[in-house]
UniProtKB/TrEMBL annotation:
<keyword id="KW-1133">Transmembrane helix</keyword>
<dbReference type="GO" id="GO:0005886">
    <property type="term" value="C:plasma membrane"/>
</dbReference>
<keyword id="KW-0813">Transport</keyword>
<comment type="similarity">
    <text>Belongs to the GSP N family.</text>
</comment>
<keyword id="KW-0472">Membrane</keyword>
<protein>
    <recommendedName>
        <fullName>Type II secretion system protein N</fullName>
    </recommendedName>
</protein>
<keyword id="KW-0653">Protein transport</keyword>
<feature type="transmembrane region" description="Helical">
    <location>
        <begin position="23"/>
        <end position="46"/>
    </location>
</feature>
<dbReference type="GO" id="GO:0015627">
    <property type="term" value="C:type II protein secretion system complex"/>
</dbReference>
<keyword id="KW-1003">Cell membrane</keyword>
<keyword id="KW-0997">Cell inner membrane</keyword>
<keyword id="KW-0812">Transmembrane</keyword>
<dbReference type="GO" id="GO:0015628">
    <property type="term" value="P:protein secretion by the type II secretion system"/>
</dbReference>
<dbReference type="InterPro" id="IPR022792">
    <property type="entry name" value="T2SS_protein-GspN"/>
</dbReference>
<dbReference type="Pfam" id="PF01203">
    <property type="entry name" value="T2SSN"/>
</dbReference>
Amino acid sequence: MSKIIVKRYSSLASVNSLRPTKLWWLVGLVLLCLSLLIQLPAAWLLQKFAPNNPYLQQISGNLWQGQANWQINARANTPLAGSVDWRWQPWHLLMGKLGMAVDIRSGKTDLQGVVKFNKTSWQANDFNGKISHDTLAQLVSWQLPDTPITIKEVSIEKNKQGYQAAKGSMNWAGGDLGYPTGGKTYLIKLPTMQGNLSADKASVQPAANANGINTSNKAAQGKSLHLALTTPQAERLGDFYLDQDNMIDVSLTQRLLKNMPAYQGKGADDSVVVSIRQPLTSMGN
């Protein structure tokens, strides 16, 4: 009799061990919700969470993968348009971010990389590709060389305080450029250039009032996106600083301006002879 009781007890114990625990039920429920979420139409999700989005149209696919057309107003009456493909990378959720591998195209421009974002920050990681002449011509009203800018391993991280990290390089073969200003067009033969990205402290000192008190905490706290232009031999040509308020500081050296036939200035090659600060949106006008 005792043997029968022991057998029944052991069989009941084995059955109970096969039953899923509450933890496994929870894991299964989470996986079910995720599988349903990634199958929702991307157009419906965008309408739900960004109903006033002016940039994306003709959206197809779902959260897992899809495609959309995009358009931005790079300059007045000159929209820049293209398409984007995305593939969701769910493991970025472990870091509290939505991450996707993207392929961005516009004309002959083609860039591939990974974007990650949440409510307070965004990242663009490991971008490679090229920005073509036709895309550059829509960004600025200059006469540009017919050569693309090559992007290599570009990564940028930004939050509310400014640019936190940046790295990567850009290469441009150069050529003849015409820069219109004051009713005239100044010609310059650009040399082959290399640009290196970094996140540095703001290049402009914070504004102060009449009593010498700092009135701009943003400039003191945040970092700027820095593009350092050099020749392939690492000789300085200029610097661009973009802050979190989309103000850009431009410094150009004597070495670069010597390539302009109309330029008559003299000085050390590394000396800065042009220094301006203006909104990024006015750069190409």
